[in-house]
Amino acid sequence: MSDGTTGRHAEVSRRGVLKGSAVITTAAALPGVLGSAQAAAAGNRPNVLVIVTDDQPKETDWATKKTRDWLAGRGVEFTQAHSTTPLCAPSRSSIFSGRYAHNHGVRDNGHAYNLDQNTTVQRHLKQAGYRTGLFGKYLNSWQIADNPPHFEEWALLQPGYVDGTYNDNGTVRQIPGYTTDVIAERTLAFLDKSATDDRPWFAYVSPYAPHGPNTPEADYAETPVPEWEGRPSVPEPDRADKPVYVQNAANTPADGQAVRQRQLRTLLSVDDAVKAFHDKLAQLGQLENTLVIYVADNGFHWADHGLLGKAAPYRPAHEIPLYVSWPAGGLGSGASDDRIVGNIDIAPTILHAAGVQPDTPQDGRSLLSDFRRDHILTEWWKAGTNGPKDTWASYVGTDKQYVEYYDLHTDESGQEVGTGRVTFREYYDLAADPYQLTNKLYQATPEDEQRLGIPQLASRLAADRRS
């Protein structure tokens, strides 16, 4: 998709390392944002706080009330936000670089070192004079002893919930306590340093919650969670129109309910941390001119179509919560934006606000602009030759989704190999069938395909994958 200039990633060594303008808000908001971005270039640059949760789907509002009160209630909620690759490391690499996975090169969870660190938002901000910090999870397969490039301060978590192992500013050690709390404490200490360091700062904060095993903090271990009876996609009885791996999926509504309960309980601690960040920024007098972005790396199936997890082309996996607040930039009154946006838009947004012109290619566009796309590309790769699911790519619009599966996988270096032959296709009318129960390409005739516009969608998808 031609969202911006693209290009192939550069290899690095392991160690070398807002409807159109129909945002529902005041008419003055967008010009205020643009004006503030211009002011940033003149020296009044915002601080940047990015909070990335792990495997958080939509429909988790019950557990994040404080977060929503601040960032959605006094910011902007993007109601059609997507993870362009619904898998941890590729998604996080897209957040850092503003690029699709087929361009940044981290196609699976095993090849974090394929990310060209020169393309990252942290590199651009550090070079522009920002103080940079990383607290929490970084990239799957990144070695814990390796320091994260372009961060001045960090507590890099080896994924876990209790008494976690961290790379603490270059020293690998265990830090006792619940990891969400430890990450919050380290972030608050980083923010406190701005009382004596007048540089603008960038903090990337990434708790492990609500990733499996979804271990809640002791105080929330028995917290009652509202009952949930599922949605039409959860007990879907007939999946003959789906690919074989979905036909064979055996997770039950009870399985989905159990994961949902655990995820919500772990998110309560994240909600506490976000409230603490709000209060600290208010105490420091930095609440107005801090750009805060809250996003999940991907969504999660609660037994939708029999699936638990992510990495599938269906909506629960790639639709994500995304809130942005920046009162000094015009994003502070509470608004809803229905544009199709993605994690690839986060880095361009940050650099726009900071008045930094990227010198490396980006596929995303700033959320502070009036850019509007009619669809977005989502993609995922099979890692190696094992596993039941083929590599897939998808055209996702507001009212339709078209999916192709391919004979492709990643090799030992994370590169794409295979014939590329299309092995299965799906098309969903999202307006009439939001839960994706009926694949209209199942037993479709050539006339049906023409009526649905499949040739045009296939051509567009192919172009997106090449861009």
UniProtKB/TrEMBL annotation:
Any idea what this protein is called?
Answer: Sulfatase N-terminal domain-containing protein
PROSITE patterns on file: TAT (PS51318)
Q: Which residue spans traverse the membrane?
A: none
Which ranges carry the Sulfatase N-terminal domain?
46-356
Q: Which InterPro entries match?
A: Alkaline_phosphatase_core_sf, Sulfatase_N, TAT_signal
Q: Where is this region: Disordered?
A: 212-236
Q: Which top-level group of life is the source organism from?
A: Bacteria
Which CDD domains does this one have?
Answer: G6S
Organism annotation: Saccharopolyspora taberi
What Pfam families does the entry give?
A: Sulfatase
